[in-house]
Amino acid sequence: MVHQAWRKSRSMVHSKASRTIRRRKEVIMPTTQVPPEGTFNTYYQTLEQHEWWFNLPENAKSIMRDIVIEPQGYGSCNCGYLGELFGYSYVFECLCKRCVQHSLFNLIPQLSGIRENRWLISYDRYLPHNEFPAQQTTRINCAGCNEIILEPSDHRIHPDSPYVTSSVILRSDGDTVNVHTRCLATCYECEKQMVTSRGNCAFYEGHPICEMCLDTAIDNDDATQCYSCAEYFSSIYYCEYRNASYCNSCYQESFECSECGSDRYSDEDHECYYEPNAYIQSYGHRPAPKFYGQDVYYFGIELEVEDTQDYGCEAMAEKLTHKLDNRFYYKHDASLDNGFEIVSHPHSLDAWQKSEWDFLRLLRVNGFRSWDTSTCGLHVHVSRTAFRNFGKRDEAHELRFQKLIYDNQSHVQAIAGRSTDYASFMDKGKLVRKVKYGSTADRREAVNVTNDHTIEIRVFRGSLNKERVLSAVEFVHSAIEYTRSMKINPKAKQLSWVRFIAYVMDNQEKYPNFTQVALRALENVRIPQYVNTNESEDE
After folding, report:
1. Cα–Cα distance, 158 to 424 (Å, whole number)
2. d(C-alpha 460, C-alpha 379), whole Å
3. Is the pLDDT of residue 307 over 50?
């Protein structure tokens, strides 16, 4: 198990960590019985290795041991998910994996209490996905979006569903491919069929167009791409303020003023509310970046603070400006009660580690707080150049990086110090689509990919402790480097927290602050409640 593997992860774990792990093993690793035939399958052994299992009354354990999860083929779940479906004892429905987990927690009152006490939990921690039984049949994947192609006989699937009917088209090399009808388009110019990715193809004057016909139109100066919607048009409009060309629809839309953050229009005069003499600017304020240090990629931080003793946010921002020169700037944030956001310019990891951090103490002695609030967070931005391979975007690396964070939610929340709706893990099952197509629910996800030049990791609780702030930057850097050249082998479990922490310990001289925070997190046997509280943080 995890703790045994950790103990074997070489002599680099110092004595304090080793003692902690031995204690955890003695507390939560009982002798596991062999489950009776036809019961909860492999879940039985997995469940009994969690500490919370011992706190359940015997009637709850008995119910869990009698539950059988069985594969029910493919189709549509009640939640709208399309794919593998499962059923289990007491409930004669076809559900996706997450709905099975959710339903079991509602079925057993004692499990429901765990969810309520933890406010936001990872169901996969208690009923892991990889323990679900395999389906008896397989499905082919769409050549466009790489998702499975369903069949009319599948559960709750309409025969005319765009996810069902597969179309076989002939490629130029003579191969045939299977695609959803939603991933099949016809060029309005030459009327040839083409494979798209979830309908993601080029459009000219609102119609799909193949690559060859589009190239011809561009060469003849008959097509120009709109900077906003990315479609192509014969007529285009240039906006001098934004220095870009737009279609008529996008040209007429409002956009955010780069100075004051308010709405303005391309063809109208704008009265800017930017306050040149103010130290704290609007939320939309984005000055030109200044880079500190030399590296391939850089980190920026956004640290939220609250004024708990009415010192005055503007007065504190003025004092910080004189102390920190131009390394930081300051913005208003509507999520704060009486505070502001401290935003850094990009720094390399080495530049951050060599920086002066006296300003954190200056904030504390004047009554400002971050960790000891219910509102403040610490966000770390990293350059997208961190995920490049020979100058080209490395989607596989970015996916491994995000999976390391999402697959280890409870551990990440432990080192981050909080769980919050402002850093949601609800998009866990959409990471491939998120990386490949940039699709995302909103900015408030654990990993936010909506920015053009950076990826934002939002999980951290705000802190005025130098070690905590540097730990957040070092965690992101170590996660990037750990997943850079990795080749995934499911049996090796390279994305497990144990293997990742072993890598960090091997490089603890490079990540001294994160090493200490990670080791302290290992000492917590119980799963903590990670919502922000008013507990105090040591300086």
Report:
1. 33
2. 6
3. yes
Using 50, 70 and 90 to split pLDDT, how confident is the model at 93? confident
pTM of the entire structure? 0.53
The span from the CA of 53 to the CA of 58, in Å, is 10
Give me the count of residues in the chain: 539
Phi-psi label, residue 391: left if phi above 0, alpha if psi -120 to 50, beta otherwise? left
Q: C-alpha 118: how far from its chain's center? A: 20
DSSP 385-451: GGGEETTEE-HHHHHHHHHHHHHTHHHHHHHHT---GGGB-TTGGGHHHHHHH---S-S-BSEE--S
Mean pLDDT of the chain: 78
User: Minimal CA–CA distance to 458: which of 427, 420, 429?
Assistant: 420
Sequence letter at residue 335: S
Q: Is 29 helix (H, G, I), strand (E, B) or coil?
A: coil
Task: Using the predicted structure, report yes or no on whether residue 66 has a pLDDT greater than 50.
Answer: yes
Rounded distance, CA 450 to CA 457, Å? 12
Residue 334 has pLDDT above 50, yes or no: yes
Question: Residues 482-525: pLDDT tens digits?
Answer: 998 787 766 667 888 988 998 898 899 999 999 999 888 766 53
* Structure-block tokens of residue 507: 């490089």
Which residues neighbour 229 within 8 Å (Cβ) at sequence distance 6 or greater? Answer: 247, 249, 250
Q: How far apart are CA 322 and CA 325, in angstroms?
A: 6
CB 497 within 8 A of CB 482: no
To 10 degrees, what angle do helices 512-522 and 497-506 make? 140
pLDDT at 310 over 80: yes
The vertex-222 CA angle with 218 and 224, nearest 5°, equals: 65
Contact 257, 272 (CB under 8 A): yes
- Asked if the model's pLDDT at residue 395 lies above 60, the reply is yes
